[in-house]
Amino acid sequence: MNINKIHIFLKLVIIIIKNINSFYELKKIKKRILGKSSYLYINIKKIKFLKKDKKIIFGKLINRSINIIKKNIFLKEKYIKNKFIKKNKKKIFFDVSLQGKKSLKGSIHPISSSISKIENFFYNIGFNIITGYEIEDKYHNFTALNIPKHHPSRNLQDTFWINKNILLRTQTSNVQIHIMKNKNLPIKIISIGKVYRNDNDIKHTPMFHQIEGLIINKKINFSNLKWIIKNFLKNFFNSDISIRFRSSYFPFTVPSAEVDIKEKNGKWLEILGCGMVHPNVLKNMKIDYKKYIGCAFGIGIERLTMLKYGILDLRYFFENNLSFLNKFK
Ligand code: DAH
Prior knowledge:
Helix content: 40-55%
Structural class: alpha+beta
Radius of gyration: 37 Å
Distance between the termini: 64 Å
CATH architecture of the largest domain: 2-Layer Sandwich
CATH superfamily of the largest domain: Bira Bifunctional Protein, Domain 2
CATH topology of the largest domain: BirA Bifunctional Protein, domain 2
Strand content: 15-25%
CATH class of the largest domain: Alpha Beta
Order of helices and strands: HHHHHEEHHEHEEHEEEHEHH
Bound molecules: 3,4-dihydroxyphenylalanine
Strand order of the largest sheet: 1-4-5-9-8-7-6
Number of strands: 9
């Protein structure tokens, strides 16, 4: 072991570090100078064979050298970083020699992808897409839709009331009233949005999505409505599914029907309501019900999406559980 050689080594190393210009080079040099097969490390191993007084001299010298090297490397790191930041002031600092961070990739929520598929279908057959109000008054949510004051359907829908008159809409059918009020006839619209009911179990959540469809024109009949619904469902499920129209009752349509879909287990599941717009609704909106006829439909989007993917509990959609959501990537 030679004191001079170690001094020369240290001087050389300092010069080398001084000339380095990137993190990558610095990392490489650091390994060579301070790694297990480096010159200094090999000398450390030799110390134990020296006499006691030399042991102290060499031990101190090597320790000091290591500290000086480490400090030089640290300062150099700082220098390179600052230089890059200054150079790329407005750009984000990016050192290609650093290891990359794996970023998590998001995906479209199943309800959102159903909504875009539905919107595409209706847009392509000439429907306009409009938005409606989620905070609504009694008149638009019930009264104008021919739901009388004491009619049981008001009680059936467990409503979130804000005050005596204002509520969170229980159905997207309120959009029908707003659009008819404009009297821009004919009408051919769909509206997709959130609705609220005080329900919570495997087939209900307090908030869910509906799509409302409305056509008002001079020549329109129930078979037009049937064609639209049949083809919509065929398009949505990408297959020939079995559906049935079952006669039903809604205060704002006459005749009214509900549509059921046959599940894999052979059971029928109700997915939508539809019908011909009730003349009273047209009268309320001062539309000449002798000239104009309307048909309408309302569909639950969560129900459709559950059926499509075989999801058993509707609440999964809104729990932000990544292992559930990742299945839709
Ligand atoms: N609004 C109804 C509901 O929430 C669904 C509905 C049924 C909408 C028949 C319609 C319709 O437009 O014609 O249960």
